[in-house]
Amino acid sequence: MTPVPAPQPPGRDPAAPLPAGAASHGQQLKALQSAMRYDPVSAALGAWDSREFRMVDASARELVRPGEQAGVRQFLANLPAQDGVWVLPAFFAQEHQAWYLPLVLTTGSAGPHRAAYFALVSPQRLLGSATSIRLLPEAFVIFATADGTRLFRYQVDTRTIEVSNAPMSAASLEHLRAGGEGYYEAPATTTGQWTHFGYSVSRRVPIGAMVAIPSRVSRLAWLQRSAGEIVMLALACTAVLFFGSRLRTSSASLRQSRQWYRELFTSVDQGLVVVSRKGTILTCNPAAISLLGAASGRELAGRELPRLTRQDHAAGITIGKAHSLLESLQPGQAVLADWQFSRLDAGGAVEVEMRLAPFPSGGADLVSVLLRDVRRERHHLQRQEFLATHDNLTGLLNRYAFQTHLQERTENQPGRPFGIILLDVNRFKDINDTLGHHAGDVVISQLARRTNAAFVNCDSVVARLGGDELAVCLPLDEPTNALDRAAEQWRGTITHAVTVAGVELELSASLGAAAYPLDATSPMNLLRCAEIAMYAAKRQMLPYQRYTETMDHFTPEALALRSDFARAIRDGGLGLAFQPQVGLGDGRLVRVEALARWVHPLKGAIAPGVFVPLAENSELIYPFTEYVMRHALAHAARWRREDHRVPVAVNISAQNLMDVKFVELVGGLLEHYGVAAPDLELEVTESALMRNPQSALRRLRELRALGVRLAIDDFGTGYASLAYLKQLPVHVLKIDKTFTADLASDDDDKRIVRMAISLAHGFGLEVVAEGVETPAVADFLAAEGCDVAQGYLYEKPLGAEEFSRKWLQDTARAPAAAALASREGRG
User: Is 241 exposed, middle or buried (0-12, 13-18, 19+ CB in 10 A)?
Assistant: First the structure.
């Protein structure tokens, strides 16, 4: 197992690379041990540079022998400056009582990383146990370099090793330099006796071995047998060189790995800190220095990382928790925690995701701490959350968040009253179409600020539901009055002009309100009720409306009833009733008004006040109007064939006047049933005309050109101006029954009716009074010059057959004649 790097002293810059020894001692030791397993002749292998020294013996154990190390250091220090392989004279190790022949490989002489790799070869192992050498007296073995330097001399008979500086003989030096192997005879330099020499020079290592036997005891056969042993010695030296080369390659790889480690440690963009189990900072990379607000690594070295914690007890972020995480960390375990640290430069807190893990080297006392800055990520998430619940233009809650607030309010405070008010800007599309959508955005932004200011002092919530629609939710003590006052207050803020692009805009809005739990008990229904009230205000051109059930044509029951009504139109399930209009002067039948009737197969008769709004508030108004006109004209055609000319009046809706094909439809029906255009009268209410005056006026002119008669129904309830009235191409003005019901006793109604009759006659219009039920009312209308009356005094609405029998077949007994006779008798 690789040892853990030694902790650095506090005075060293933690950002600097770790010392080579601390990082590579163990790994180089492993490389030496691996090489030793393949070396049969070396007693020890070692490596050395200017900072480190290490050796292993033949059993691959690390040697720590100061005496031997001193001897090795001495000869290593005197090596030549250039790179190469060097064989040095043998030296005697006192501690081990053994001779060693140093074989050295040097590298890096031109740079700061000079290193040497050496093998201490045992001379005894090189010599082996050659029996033939031991048996010959006076024989000796010399190991020398190619340049003639004696390495050692082994005396066979005494089994001793000698180191001498005596020069080699010229003959020996010549053969050593020539290389190869062979033998020759020459006088020995020490004894002068003729001696047989057998020699062998290594091809890779600058070393040669010579076996010397005095001629008088030598034999040629012995020399030949010894040649094999010499060759084995040379091969052993070559093996030492090979494994030394492998050791050099391993060391170079270790240096490269150490360089990669330094680059990875300093270049990673996340903070990386190495701490002890107690949290003391040993080293950190530049990203951690910047993240923690330190000026340099020295400012962090020696500090306890847990004590930089910015404590948040609610979130469980404390100094004690940090120490606990460090101490409880198990080998192979990694712990993730959201954490906060206080920056040393007083720059506030920094939020990080902290990952604790034992140091990669496997050391039990060091922990690597990876700090990932999550501030930008969390700010982005917070921004995304804000955009998901707020309107980007105004910063108000959006529809989803507003509905969520209503849901939480009903769940957390069930039964406690509150209300919502919806506001929709009138003619907002005109602003966008005229000044551009940017101007519309400016208007909405200013209205949002005004709304916030108007409701800042109450527990209210303001939202933009979309487009030009704003909403307010506020608590209520008294649901009805408080809601009305809040709506009036809000409307007052809207009436102030808004200046956009130099144009001063006067704004108006339609407001609708609903109260919980009075109007609805669920948030969705409550919001729907407020929208119904708001659209009701817009349709009626009123500034504000409170929700009432009579406005609600969109309940599940109404939806089912609308489906049944559509089926009745399609399958002919509707009927018509006819109410006569008679002349006040002579009681003659002037025309009949066709009124739709519906008898539901399960619910029985449905009042027109129920099913007519169903049609007017949906697309059913078109087939419904066509149905009534078609059947009314069919009866008129039949009566005509029976020699009775009876004009019919049919009510139409504002939606019909918006239909560009409506005039074509009317003309086609008249032609189909063969009814003259003047025998059809179309009645449209004054309020319907005021919804879109220009389009209504254009369609009425087209109908008049077709030849049909036109009537303004319910006159006096729609607030039409005289300037607009004079433009209408109509023939008849009908006074609403609200003014005739109390006409005999109400002076105000009398004045209104008198002015309406005078006004209509001034425009050349026929006047029809609705709701005539008493002779006194009929007398007053006749006295004021009213032309035609309609009401229960003359007849209630009748079916087609009953109307024909009572009014067409027996005109003498017609109710109109009886009513006229009654009036005359009283007169």
Answer: middle
